[in-house]
Here is the input.
Amino acid sequence: MKMQNNTTTKHLNHNKMNIDFRKILIIILGSLWLWLMISILYGCSANYHFGKFLKKGGTIDTTERIVSVEKVIKVNGKDSIILVEMPLNCPEVQIPATRYETRLEYRLKRDSIKTVRYVTKWKTKEVVKLAKTQNKKPFNLFWIGLGIGIVTPILFKFVIKKI
Here is the structure.
C-alpha cells in the first residue's frame, strides 16, 4: 500500500528574494552616500578650526628671513653658479601647550628641584665632615695648659711641706 502525501510544497521564488535584497542594499548604500554628502557640505570649515586655535591662545608670528637660492647656468659649455638672496615672510606657528604637556613640565621642574635639594644637602654634609676631619688638631693646648695649671699648685704644696 502506497501512501499519498496530500501536502503540496510551494517553491520559493528566488528571483523575488534577489529583488528584495537588491532594493534593501540600494537603499542602504544610497542613504550612506547621502549622509556622506551632507556631512561634507555642512561640516566645519578651516575658519572654524582656526578660530578655535586662536581662542586657545595660539599665535602666528611672521618673521622675515633671507633664503639663498642657487641657480646653475651653463654658459659656453661651462657651469656658472648664481646665488640669489630672497627675503621671505615665513610664518611661525606657536601652538599652546596641552594640559598633558603642562603637567609633565611641572613634574619635571618639581622633581628636578627635589633632586637638587637632595644633592646639595648631601654635598653640604660631606663638606662639613671633611672640614671637621681636616680642622682636627692632635693636641688641644688649652687642656694641656689647664692640666699643668691645676697640677703645679698641688705639687708646690707637697714640696713646701717637705722643706
About this structure: The first strand starts at residue 59 and ends at 75.
